[in-house]
Design brief:
Low-confidence stretches of chain B: 1-15
Radius of gyration of chain B: 20 Å
Mean pLDDT of chain A: 92
Largest sheet of chain B: 11 strands, mixed
Shape of chain A: elongated
Radius of gyration of chain A: 14 Å
Order of helices and strands of chain A: HH
Strand content of chain B: 15-25%
Number of helices of chain A: 2
Shape of chain B: globular
Mean pLDDT of chain B: 91
Oligomer: heterodimer
Structural class of chain A: mainly alpha
Helix content of chain B: 25-40%
Distance between the termini of chain A: 42 Å
Strand order of the largest sheet of chain B: 3-5-4-10-12-11-18-19-15-13-14
């Protein structure tokens, strides 16, 4: 299943690799969690830019 | 032996306690329980400060003869452990007899004490509220008077948070100072077993039994500063009042800002998600139907992270750990609330702290995560005064690496001065 949302494609591919078939509700929930982790990644990058040459 | 699935066989001695008329059953807090050891003669008790005390172990740590359930139905059918984790073996050498394993958030991936398989762990101070987690049963059983001591694990706050919400003592040791071998992993970088107790003196004795170095000399001229701004704020008015009053009573006036804490929290979130997904990939592929929905989805989200995101979190941790001296700004200890609110109601999904609304889990972990990421020791102290609702508040003291004994000595001093004390609601019935 292809989505125009790149994050959703990552979620779909990961679930497929794990052999998991989940409901749309679960896929959305995982997408939300991943979005939070991506925001955290941005915060990490911002700080690393400040403290590393 | 008693399991969650067959709680009717709980040994009578663990049967119950009461709090405000509410019935608190040991089966609520213990994953498995065994008959207590025979009474120890007084002379033997005197040979060890811990001998004869009641102790239980969080059920993600291997205890010989007990199932290492880790709050996960996928692990509930596993055979009992054949060997003790090294940390448990150390305790037995200290003369302690393990009487139970304690319930917890699934795979230690949560701060609430809610478990999709086994329900929520009621807070002994108000059974309509959560205990906090993930070492939920450990802290709650002490607060209910069913245990003197417990060993939990702390990845991002899982000893300190339930200790604060249940009103008992809890220490996250310096990362690496206590072996996590034999523990069901969440984050292999951040996980560490930590002690909980109903007194500061017992906490120190248990920490020593776990292998933490305790100096005989009393620390002098300790410089303490309060953390200003994030993550120490925002907090609920009741917590603000309790912490302000406590800080005033111990004469803490210096303040230190921790602008790095948001990045450390973010790094810990990524590191934990990535490492948890790696650690539990087999369960995810083979028994995903036996993992709670939220835990499963969090593990899958972690599996979605690219390795480079993890590597950058590792880089950040290394960069911050090189700067610890400057982060403390000349102080020995940082002080802030352990948790931004009192224990939330059991059905609460969101938590408001001074106008900021966050999911309960995120709000509970806000004050603890950043310090775990840096591997710092942190002590949750039960402030003697409860809130107007009769709920405990924890003050968190964070030290530099290897200063666990300074924190423990500070705790004993606060207890001796009558400023801090565990809140135990009832003796065993």
């Amino acid at each position: 299943m292809y989505s125009e949302d790149p994050r959703q494609n990552i979620v779909d591919t990961t679930c497929s690799n794990l052999g998991l078939s989940l409901s749309m509700d679960d896929l959305r929930n995982i997408n939300d969690i991943l979005r939070t982790l991506e925001s955290a990644r941005d915060v990490v990058e911002d700080w690393l830019q400040k403290v590393t040459p | 032996m008693t399991t969650m699935a067959d709680q009717s066989q709980a040994p009578a001695v663990f049967a119950s306690a009461t709090s405000g008329g509410a019935h608190l059953a040991s089966k609520t807090y213990f994953a498995e329980a065994k008959e207590p050891p025979p009474t120890v003669p007084r002379s033997d008790k005197e040979s060890s400060p811990l001998r004869g005390l009641r102790i239980a172990i969080k059920s993600n740590i291997a205890v010989k003869g007990f199932r290492t359930v880790a709050g996960c139905a996928a692990l509930a059918a596993e055979a009992p452990a054949l060997e003790d984790a090294p940390v448990v073996a150390r305790l037995r050498e200290s003369g302690l007899a393990i009487i139970a394993t304690t319930v917890m958030d699934e795979l230690a991936y949560g701060f609430t004490g809610r478990n999709a398989h086994f329900g929520y762990v009621p807070n002994p101070h108000d059974v309509d509220r959560i205990s906090g987690g993930s070492s939920s049963g450990a802290a709650a059983a002490i607060a209910a008077g069913m245990l003197d001591l417990a060993v939990g694990t702390d990845t991002n706050g899982s000893v300190r948070i339930p200790a604060a919400l249940c009103g008992v003592w809890g220490l996250r040791p310096t990362t690496g100072s206590v072996s996590a071998e034999g523990t069901v992993p969440l984050s292999t970088t951040l996980d560490i077993p930590g002690p909980l107790a109903n007194s500061a003196a017992y906490l120190t004795a248990l920490a020593s039994a776990l292998g933490i170095s305790i100096s005989a000399a009393s620390p002098k001229d300790i410089r303490i500063a309060r953390v200003s701004g994030f993550p120490a704020t925002p907090v609920t008015p009741a917590v603000a009042q309790a912490i302000d009053s406590f800080a005033s009573s111990i004469g803490v006036t210096d303040q230190v800002a921790t602008p790095w804490a948001a990045a450390a929290r973010a790094g810990a979130q990524i590191m934990t998600a990535f490492e948890a997904a790696v650690a539990h990939r087999q369960i995810l592929t083979d028994r995903s139907d036996l993992i709670g929905r939220l835990t499963r989805n969090r593990l899958i989200a972690g599996a979605c992270l690219p390795p480079d995101a993890y590597k950058r979190a590792v880089d950040l941790r290394a960069a911050l750990r090189q700067r610890i001296e400057s982060l403390f700004e000349g102080h020995d200890i940082l002080m802030l609330p352990t948790v931004a609110s009192e224990a939330p109601l059991a059905n609460a999904e969101m938590l408001e702290t001074d106008g900021i609304i966050e999911p309960v889990n995120a709000a509970l972990g806000r004050c603890t995560i950043a310090f775990s990421f840096l591997g710092l020791p942190a002590l949750s102290v039960p402030i003697r005064a409860k809130t107007a609702k009769g709920l405990p508040v924890g003050a968190q003291f964070v030290g530099r690496p290897g200063t666990d004994d300074v924190l423990l000595a500070l705790g004993e001093g606060l207890e001796a001065a009558g400023l801090a004390a565990a809140h135990v609601v009832s003796k065993q019935a």
